[in-house]
Amino acid sequence: MTTDIIELHNFIVLIEQSKASTTLIQKCSIDTDVVGFAFYGSGSVELEIRHNDQTKYVTNTTGMAISFYGNQRVEFSHKIAPDRPLQSISIFTRIERLHTLPQSEQQIFQEKLPQLLRPEQNFVKGPSFYMNVDMQHAVQKVFNTPYSGNTRLLFLKSQVNELLAHFFALLSAERNNEVENSDKLFQAKDIMVNNIAQPPSLTELSKLIGLNSNKLKRNFKELFGLPVFKFLQEERLRKAYELLCGHEMSVQETAWYVGYESLSSFSNAFQKKYGLRPNELRQQFLSNKS
Q1: Do residues 7 and 153 touch, judged by C-beta distance below 8 A?
Q2: Is the pTM of this model over 0.90?
Q3: DSSP conformational letter for 201
Q4: From the CB of residue 14, how many other CB atoms can be counted at a distance below 10 Å?
Q5: Rounded to an integer, what distance in angstroms lies between the CA atom of residue 203 and that of residue 134?
Q6: Cα 61 to Cα 221: distance, rounded to the nearest angstrom
Q7: What's the pLDDT tens digit per position in 227-274?
Q8: H-helix or E-strand containing 27?
Q9: Which architecture, in CATH terms, is 230-289?
Q10: 2-177 architecture in CATH?
């Protein structure tokens, strides 16, 4: 894992790449109140976010652009898949320094990201969507630049400004045309997470959120990086891992709880994702606990 940290006036930029043959888990924290953006050129990252005795999980994949607010009370843990080499660009700006931006740029932040500038929690997830072609090209130019030294810094500054400009332009378009659909997609995600053992069918889910099934399938994958029921499978296995490491359920009870009727199917899917069978993880947890 390589991380290039660069300070560009009001922004701190992290340029990260990984080519590891095994799963990487990287923890990090923030020392002040920041608004952040992340652009994923490639990779698959399971992000665990801890704050206020709460834990949230977000999966970020190739092509995603995200925004968020965080402070020093938030702990981040990135789980990076070995078969999906990571290329990501993260841009942070301290809220206290936003007033040093030109007035026109301050206005953009205030109008487009009010929930991040006036957060109600220690972590707030802002708008996220699939990058357009211009944004993808800007990301790749960062990783493929031949420049070095001060010339590279000047070039990176231009690309950071380009990425943010594209982000805000796309955000405006999304808000004008897709806000309602985005809300419905998050509603679909919540319905599946809250009914993990017995989720509605795709047709039923479409009716529940008021979005036709074709748009649901296409836009869900664009927003969350996974097809609807692939997301459900990932959520089931993630929840099973959590239960096996922190509750008194047996492996069979865990399988039923997350919606698997067949113990063998559950065990095979779990091993494929985590590299060990559920009973092996359970035994590890019990051994560590004793």
Answers
A1: no
A2: no
A3: P
A4: 16
A5: 34
A6: 10
A7: 998 999 999 998 998 888 877 788 999 999 999 999 999 999 999 988
A8: strand 24-29
A9: Orthogonal Bundle (1.10)
A10: Sandwich (2.60)
